[in-house]
Amino acid sequence: MQGRLVTLEWPGDDDWAAIASWLRPGSPAAVLSGDWELLGAAEVEQANRSGRVHHLVIRTKDGTRIGTVSYQRSGRIGGYTVGGAIGSPELWRRGYGAEAVVLLVDYLFHQLDAHRVQVTTAGYNKGIIRLMTKTPFVVEGILRDHCYLDGEYHDAIVWGLLRDEHYASLKPSEDNRVLAVGLEDFVSEDDKVQARAVLAEHLATADRTALTPYLEPDVTAPGKIVPAERGAA
């Protein structure tokens, strides 16, 4: 997945340790997200291979590995929770993390048939809250005392985005507040049209199809379908 600032790639063998370091307790990214996992590289890799979570590596245009985004299923079919982390504070507020999350969200809706995507942000993270207010995500609730930092508990904000809201956001907005990318289709519309045309031609000229018995109704018995004779037009 490629954006203007970053690309998202599936992790390789040398990426698991970096992902674990970004998510470890006390790391700058984990502190600001309000979320962390006490996992080593092997555990992160196993969690991905088992399908419990899916991480992607964020790389800048020059190929530098700078962070990760992740998604996992939540709720019923079509629901996903996403998260992300830019490892070095020096790279924060440059648009890298924002674009990476937008790319991931668009991937979930456009390729994995997501119906709802959820993001949870720490109530003390001013930068992320300000960023989320510029997206089409809707505030859906407050998790009281969900995060712990500096000796006290803090609330977390739950943001949600539905499928129709996502696609509406891809259209230009009047105030330019919507963060949207819109990934290119894997298969071009022209190829899709040609594929349907090839199938239509085959169905019109060939009798090697399971549909043949349904093409000629039995006029002697209303509602009953009988097979058409082989070779009949």
From TrEMBL:
InterPro entries, alphabetized: Acyl_CoA_acyltransferase, GNAT_dom, Ribosomal_N-acetyltransferase
Matching PROSITE patterns: GNAT
Keywords: Transferase
E.C. designation(s): 2.-.-.-
Signal peptide segment: none
Gene Ontology MF terms in the entry: transferase activity
Domain N-acetyltransferase: 1-164
Name assigned to this protein: GNAT family protein
